[in-house]
Design a protein that fits this description.
Layout: E1 2-5, H1 14-22, E2 28-30, E3 34-35, H2 36-41, H3 46-49, E4 59-64, H4 68-79, E5 85-90, H5 95-98, H6 105-108, H7 111-129, E6 137-142, H8 151-163, E7 168-171, H9 187-195, E8 201-204, H10 210-219, E9 225-228, H11 230-234, H12 238-243, E10 249-251, H13 252-266, H14 269-283, H15 290-298, H16 303-316, E11 322-324
Parallel strand pairs: 1-2, 1-9, 2-4, 3-4, 4-5, 5-6, 6-7, 7-8, 8-9
Antiparallel strand pairs: 10-11
Helix pairs in contact: 1-13, 4-7, 13-14, 13-16, 14-15
Length: 325
């Protein structure tokens, strides 16, 4: 069974992937989604979205956009970067994405429009492989659909995806408006896996520890893998924890300081503050006085101040420094 890093805006960048890799890594790393028109326009920050470290061969490039043309053109750039393949985002329900016609909106548009998108990107992948280059995979990450979705309509949509050449499906089994407070309907991952026994179906959502992993796999035993997002942001070691019962320990202060160093190396200065704030909003949940620690990090004036805050917290709370698992 595969373990996969989910695409998370402002989180699934190279600095965070390095943090995950420090604990043994995973089978596939999805990057934070790339906006196709922005990539084509080659803005000043786009090169940071397509950094492929620390394990380039395990990268999956997720694309978002509102129309097929730019997404097909952008896929040509991403194919040259190597890795496992390209993923089309059809699952993001954040209003700033969905309201523009991207993300989950692709599940709600006329089916032929979405089919044309998939066909266009697949064509680029096939053309890329014609010169002997390594064939790359096309995948889609999706949800169940809108609030009035039906099982019949859902499978009609996924049938179209597979017929157009999608080779892997990742399902977050919630609807457009259902948030993380609502339980995942893992049984739909199982139904999807049984419906397409010839392609991998990945479970995404609700897995945060060994007990929830066991519950998810009990509900969907034919899932080919598990993709984790928020729980991985909180615990970059979660794949190591889930894949082995062998105990391990590490220095949480060193992990935090190394992350700051890696953000400086892998991200532009304009992104440093927001990337640190996003990571520490989750990471601080591991500690006895997490809200206090989080407040310190949110108010850090710059990276050096952030380092001082990390050292100050563990000086005040030395029992939190070494984490045993």
């Amino acid at each position: 069974m595969k373990f996969i890093l989910a695409p998370m805006a402002t989180l699934s960048h190279e600095a965070f992937r390095r943090c995950v890799a420090h604990f043994g890594g995973c089978d596939e790393y999805f990057n934070e989604m790339i906006n196709a028109p922005s990539l084509l326009h080659q803005g000043p920050f786009e090169k940071f979205y397509i950094r492929s470290g620390p394990e380039p061969q395990k990268m999956v490039w997720q694309l978002t956009g509102t129309t097929a043309g730019p997404m097909a053109e952008a896929s040509k750039i991403l194919l040259d970067l190597g890795g496992i393949g390209i993923d089309i985002n059809m699952g993001c329900s954040a209003p700033q994405i969905a309201n523009t016609g991207a993300g989950i909106s692709w599940m709600l548009k006329p089916v032929e429009e979405t089919a044309n998108l998939v066909r266009s990107v697949k064509s680029q992948i096939e053309n890329y492989a014609k010169d002997g280059s390594k064939p790359q995979r096309l995948s889609v990450k999706l949800r169940l659909g809108d609030e009035d979705f039906t099982e019949e309509g859902f499978f009609k949509f996924t049938d179209m995806l597979v017929e157009e050449g999608v080779e892997m499906l990742t399902l977050h089994p919630r609807t457009k408006k259902e948030k993380t407070c609502r339980p995942c309907r893992w049984q739909y991952v199982e139904k999807l896996a049984l419906h397409y026994p010839h392609i991998p179906v990945i479970l995404n959502g609700g897995v945060k520890d060994r007990s929830t992993l066991q519950a998810a796999l009990k509900a969907s035993p034919h899932a080919a893998g598990v993709m984790i997002a928020r729980a991985l942001a909180q615990k970059p070691w979660i794949f190591k924890e889930l894949s082995s019962e062998e105990p391990f320990s590490f220095d949480a202060e060193e992990v935090a300081l190394k992350f700051i160093d890696d953000v400086e190396e892998c991200q532009p200065p304009e992104f440093w503050k927001t990337r640190l704030q996003r990571f520490f909003a989750y990471y601080c949940l591991n500690f006895s006085f997490g809200h206090f620690f989080w407040t310190m990090m949110q108010n850090a004036k710059d990276n050096d101040d952030a380092r001082k805050c990390v050292r100050a917290y563990f000086e005040k709370c030395p029992d939190d420094r070494i984490i045993f698992r």
